[in-house]
Amino acid sequence: MNQPVRFSVIIPTFRDTARLTACMESVLKCGTEQSFEVIVVNNAPEHQASEFLFGDPRVKVLHEPAHGSYMARNRGAEAARGTYLAFTDSDCIVDPEWLAEAEKVFQGRDCDLLGGHVELFKVPGANGWIYIYEKNHAFRQDLTVPRGQGVTANLFVRKKVFDELGGFDKSMLSGGDWEFTSRAVNRGFRLCYAPGVKIRHPARESFSSFFRKQKRLAAWGYQNGKIKHHHSGLRMLGSHLLNNGRNIFVQTGQTEKSSEKPLIFLLASAIYIYKTVILSAIVVHIINAEKVTAY
User: Which pTM does this prediction carry?
Assistant: First the structure.
C-alpha cells in the first residue's frame, strides 16, 4: 500500500458491529479508478481489534478511547494518507459510485468541502411515522449545505483544508459537523452540494430512539451555547421558545405531500414541546447536560 491514496474513508463506530459490516461491504464495492483506504475508528474501548477484521488490505482499524465521535474522526484523519477525507457513519450504505462521483465534483468544480445527498430508508419493523418525518426533514443537505452546514454522514474534505482548520472541535459531542463546516466557510473555504454523491441512512426505528436524539441535540446545543458563547440557560431557553416554534410551520410548509403535512405538524410540535421540557430541566438542574451521551 505504498501507492498514492486518493481517498481516505473514515468511519467512527461505537458498539455497532452489525451495521458497520454492511457499511463496509458497500464501501469496499465502490467503483473508482482512484485508490482509497478505509479507516475504521472504534470508540468503544471494551471492543477488541479482532472484532473488526474485514480481510481487506485497504482497511485499517484504530482505537480512540476518548468518548465522542468527533474525537474518533480526528483520530482517523490524523492517520489518513489520502488527498481527500471521506466521512460517513457506520450505519450508512454508500452508493457504488460514491467515490467516483466525488472525484468528478472535485475535478470539475472549485470545492474544498463537499456535502452529498443523504437518502433516508426505513428498516423492517421501524416506525412509519418517524420515517415519514425524517425522510422529509433529516439530513437535508440540499438545504443546509448552501447555508454552510454539512453532516458527516456524507462529507468530503480536502485533507490539507482539514489540517489547516485543526479538525473537528473535540469538545463537542453533537453538532460538531455543522460547527466544522461553518468554521470552514467563515474562513473562506468553499463548501459544495453534490446530489450525485449519494449514501443511504436508516431512519430512526422507534419513538424512543427518535426522542433520545432530540434530547441529545437539545442538551449539547445548550452546552455549546454556554461554553462557546457564554449564554445563560434562561437566554437559551427564551431563544428556543421565541425562534424554534417557527420550525413547526417551516417544516410543515416544506413537506411535499399534502397528505403528510398533518403528521409533520404533529411531530414538529412534539419536538418543540419536548425540547422545551429538556431545556427547562437543564436550567433548573434536573438534567446535567454534560452527562448526556454522544451516542
Answer: 0.89
